[in-house]
Amino acid sequence: DAKTTQPTSMDCAEGRAANLPCNHSTISGNEYVYWYRQIHSQGPQYIIHGLKNNETNEMASLIITEDRKSSTLILPHATLRDTAVYYCIVRVSMNSGYSTLTFGKGTMLLVSP
Amino acid sequence: GAVVSQHPSWVICKSGTSVKIECRSLDFQATTMFWYRQFPKQSLMLMATSNEGSKATYEQGVEKDKFLINHASLTLSTLTVTSAHPEDSSFYICSARRGTNYGYTFGSGTRLTVV
Question: How confident is the model at residue A50 (pLDDT cuts 50, 70, 90)?
Fold first, then answer.
């Protein structure tokens, strides 16, 4: 699986959009970009994933650059409950085999009032 | 759907005793489950892959005789930390997925403190 690089930490004001970047310059054509988050003392939670098109769901939006070497997770209106560590993971489709996810260090997002 | 329940959520045990952690898939069958360990301010590290009806596959550096994994049914995997020591104190998390067309669901984790 390709390596990802994320900032160690970010701050965001409550109600504002949180934009979390991720670099994955060695991504292969068949690798997806997945985002998970982990709230303190809880298990990771799936947020969103994509291949090359931008994706949106009820939690967030995922913007992937045209060359696929980087992406941005957008939380449109951050709340205090969005404070968590956000992990960007690149791997082949979940449909292929039973190998699990490899977590990097992620970005600690702190949402403040 | 796709709920994974982990129990207990926290446990304190004396050094030298054994502790069992359960991971259940509540609304789906999971032939494969995964066990992670997370030390404070660090990321999740995969410990082992639990396979229903067969032996677990352990990651390099994880002692299989110390971390016993049993996956006796399609909805239950257990991790037993044997002869626990204070350095085993950590946050243990399991995960599973319903099948190849689904993503991974994680349990809520177990905080183990060995005193």
Answer: very high
